[in-house]
What does this fold into?
Amino acid sequence: MRHTISVLVENEFGVLSRVSGLFSGRGFNIESLCVAETMDPQVSRMTIVTSGNDQIIEQILKQLNKLIPVLKVIDFTGVDTVDRELVLVKVNADGDGKQEVLRLVDIFRARIVDVAPRCYTIEMTGGEGKVLAFLQMLRPLGIREIVRTGKIAVSRGM
Amino acid sequence: MQMTGAEIFVKALADLGVDVVFGYPGGATINIYDALFKNVKVRHMLCRHEQGAVHMADGYARASGRTGVCLVTSGPGATNTVTGLATAYMDSIPIVVFTGQVPTLLIGNDAFQEADIVGISRPCTKHNYLVKETKDLARIIKEAFYIASTGRPGPVLVDMPKDVLAASARYDLPKEVSLRGYRPTYEGHPRQVESAVRLLLSMERPVVYAGGGVILSNASGELAELSRALSLPVTTTLMGMGAFPGSDPLSLGMLGMHGTYAANMAISNSDVILAVGARFDDRVTGKVSEFAPHAKIIHVDIDPTSIQKNVRVDIPIVGDLKDVLRRMIKLVKGKKEATAYRGKTAAWRGQIASWAKTHPLTYKPSKGKIKPQYVVEQIHKLTKGKAIVATEVGQNQMWAAQFYNYEQPRTFLSSGGLGTMGYGLPAAIGAQVAMPGRLVVDIAGDGSIQMNIQELATAVQYRIPVKVVILNNGTLGMVRQWQELFFDGNYSQTCLPRIPDFVKLAEAYGAKGFRATKPEEVPEVLRKGFAADGPVLIDVITDPAEMVYPMVPAGAGLTEMLLV
It folds into this structure.
């Protein structure tokens, strides 16, 4: 099962390699990983999407907690969250395809951020389902490149 | 007060009560060596190889409970410590390894004697540091010792660039350490402890499974008190040897791959296991799916990651064993339930006693050839079970665990987790430095002794009177044993035909050498060797065909033991 884990860490050099080394050293899987500073500049937040059975997830959470620069570990499974990912896509835009791209951008509330003679670059944010659906719709038009940030998440309410 | 980084280093160690540093100098640490030269509080012992230095710090820590300290230079000096770090990490031993590093500006330049030791050692240390500014050095040293020695102990590495050691800063050693991301849990949850006691008392076939954590937490007294209050049979892991007195009637000896018949049968037929400071290692459980199929498991450990890692646990308790065992004792001692429980479990203890009687640890004595088990028994007899015993790794290690009765914690020093050949001699030296009044014996094999034999020079230089007994069978015995049992006797690369003359070798280093070739010579040669001053190497020519039994083949269930 997939889990989204939010990890608050000391904002210091080497923390990312401690976390990623833990995953690779113990054979855990990282599907995506996002890191940036929080409100407190001394603290960074990592959002990690991983998968495994209950025993593996329990080990991942415990092993993360065991790292000394790790301050807090939250598993968002079963927690009501808002999650988003940002995607930049370069897609073919010539002939009939151009209109279709524009329609899809409108439907998915995406934006065109760069225009070249036969290619648009689109910026889109959304939850996992929306991102996948958007990419699926664009695929027949000819995607040249996809860049994704990986998922970030925050719990709903207070 | 302004001081150089090197002076801060030496003063911080002195202020933290460090009495000895095991090390080896080099370009990146030369400033520290200059500061050490002018200092009288911290003694430096010059080893012959950095791996030896780390194992010495490790042996020092295991024997004394104090944190061991090691100082090496950058590059190869640092990379040579990796095996020692991994050894200490696997066995949770508190040591701090200080490495020199090239000047900050050269880091990443592939400079002379540069290695990214912080990157290299990350998976085999509890934590590590690269010191970037001289003003941080004292605080980091304080934190390193704190992290190494608290919670589940382990090695910490501190990497110090040469310019950081040369520059000056104010000496400011903090009194307290505050790390918001590191707060070990010491107190066991009271309700979990109560549930554990209730579960234990509701069952009829209990076993205590005690590991190295009991020794690390200095909880041997509490373990003995609880076990005796409830007449609980106790089996220990290799790392737990000495955690519970081997001569106690409740002691079943070691369990696992080379454990006793009684211990493996007891754990396999138990209905409740109280696991304390142990981690269900594969050498203990055998085939996990067949491990203790009828038992409910209570697992007490200070490290939450150890719990539910290899086996399902019914009652997990995170906490310091000393605290948890004390609470358990309080709940049962002198209570009438305890008396009733001892009555209810008497039949079970009778069953265990009969297992122990039908299949004790044994070997077939021989008139012509020296049996290694006999040598270990004779060492036990001669030292009255009071020596500190270090071991190498392999058959010698297993026989040392099986045929010497360990009565006290911190008397059996062995690389259990990593299985590091070459550990014993330097560990024995470190232990002897920590405990100058004790008799320290390294039970070695002819293979592993050669992996760090150079440390004999260290022992001779500092007159460290360790006694090394080599069970010399001319083979890499444990691998040979597997080849004998599972690979049709194809002894591929396990014969050591060019073994040096260890007596002459000892003499070449300036130590004393003795040899026994016949069984009847053993007691006298051991007596003479142990009575001699200074470091001694005793070469005992043993039967190469002898194997370690019982043995649970890798991947088999614990009850599928090969017996003598």
